[in-house]
Design goal:
The protein has helices at residues 32-45, 62-65, 92-95, 106-118, 138-146, 160-175, 206-214, 226-233, 238-241, 246-256; strands at 17-24, 50-54, 74-75, 78-79, 82-84, 87-91, 125-131, 151-156, 180-186, 190-191, 198-199, 218-222. By secondary structure, the protein is an alpha/beta fold. The chain has an eight-stranded mixed beta sheet with strand order 5-6-2-7-1-8-9-12, sandwiched between helices. It has a single domain (23-256), classed as 3-Layer(aba) Sandwich (Rossmann fold), CATH 3.40.50.300. Helices cover 36% and strands 21% of the residues. The longest helix has 16 residues, at 160-175. Bound molecules: adenosine-5'-diphosphate (ADP). Keywords: 4Fe-4S, ATP-binding, Hydrolase, Iron, Iron-sulfur, Metal-binding, Nucleotide-binding, Transit peptide. This is Iron-sulfur cluster carrier protein. Homodimer. ATP binds at residues 26-33. Its cofactor is [4Fe-4S] cluster.
């Protein structure tokens, strides 16, 4: 008879960290980092102790999202995470110079990630959100295997191409027994601030239908909005800068359903 497995992948955990949750996407540019940052902030607002680890070695966005540009202090073998809005934050972008073209191979990605998990003094955390490198290649698979992930959130736009990649993401995590916490549809629609027109720029309902087809929870929709982009570029994502906005509430609902 099959043995009962504990929830989550079989890899190593991080002492003091209760849950590690990956935020992933099959494709770059769909809003994975924006979603990871705003979900981390939402969870923190719900009273949890939250860390955010930017593992997107190909294009770390967390330094920009939180306007953090100093190097972490080192104590012995351990790096101290930086802090912003009550989050403990570590990014590969703190460690390498901005603009460095990172053509990393799988094993290099893996060792950088291992270091960010094990040689950072995260302290006691209820949840560590990991902004994963985009894609479903070897690096992601290895990461999903070696780190004890409690679950994964997949971010997709409503477009067919992004959804096809999201499907590969779900398959990859399932292969290594990481529970799929659900799918977030980003850039779902656009409400014109001038005329109120509600437009589905990239199609509609795709992620929900895809989630249903894959038997994964659909976590909710985030619109394409100037305020989401501008607050992120300014270094204080929407949940931190406009916590009462409808956008922050949308992230809050998703965070509650995790
Ligand atoms: P990824 O991590 O998937 O590469 P990012 O989170 O870096 O994507 O987002 C890519 C770009 O799109 C960024 O400029 C970001 O500010 C913007 N963006 C992401 N989500 C939204 C949204 N819902 N509305 C407006 N802009 C968004």
């Amino acid at each position: 008879a099959p043995q009962a497995r504990p929830q989550g992948s079989s890899g190593a955990g991080v002492p003091g960290v209760k849950h590690i949750v990956a935020v992933a996407s099959g494709k770059g540019g769909v809003g994975k980092s924006t979603t990871a940052a705003n979900l981390a902030l939402s969870l923190q607002r719900q009273g949890l102790r939250v860390g955010l680890m930017d593992a997107d070695v190909y294009g770390p966005s967390v330094p920009t999202l939180f306007a953090l540009h100093s190097k972490p202090e080192v104590e012995g073998r351990m790096m101290k995470p930086l802090e912003a809005h009550g989050l403990k934050i570590m990014s590969i972008g703190f460690l390498v110079d901005a603009g460095t073209a990172m053509i990393w191979r799988g094993p290099m990605v893996m060792s950088a990630l291992t270091q960010m998990l094990n040689e950072v003094s995260w302290g006691e955390l209820d949840i560590l959100i990991v902004d994963m490198p985009p894609g479903t290649g070897d690096a992601q698979l290895t990461m999903a295997q070696r780190v004890k992930l409690s679950g994964a959130v997949i971010v997709s736009t409503p477009q067919d191409l992004a959804l096809a990649d999201a499907r590969r993401g779900v398959a990859m995590f399932r292969k290594v027994d990481v529970p799929i916490l659900g799918i977030v549809e980003n850039m779902s629609y656009y409400d014109c601030p001038n005329c109120g027109h509600h437009a589905h720029l990239f199609g509609h309902g795709g992620a929900k239908a895809e989630a249903q087809a894959m038997g994964a929870p659909f976590l909710g929709e985030i619109p394409l909005a100037l305020d989401i982009r501008s607050t992120s570029d300014a270094g204080a994502p929407i949940v931190a800068s406009a916590p009462d906005s409808s956008y922050a509430q949308a992230y809050g609902r998703i965070a509650e359903s995790l």
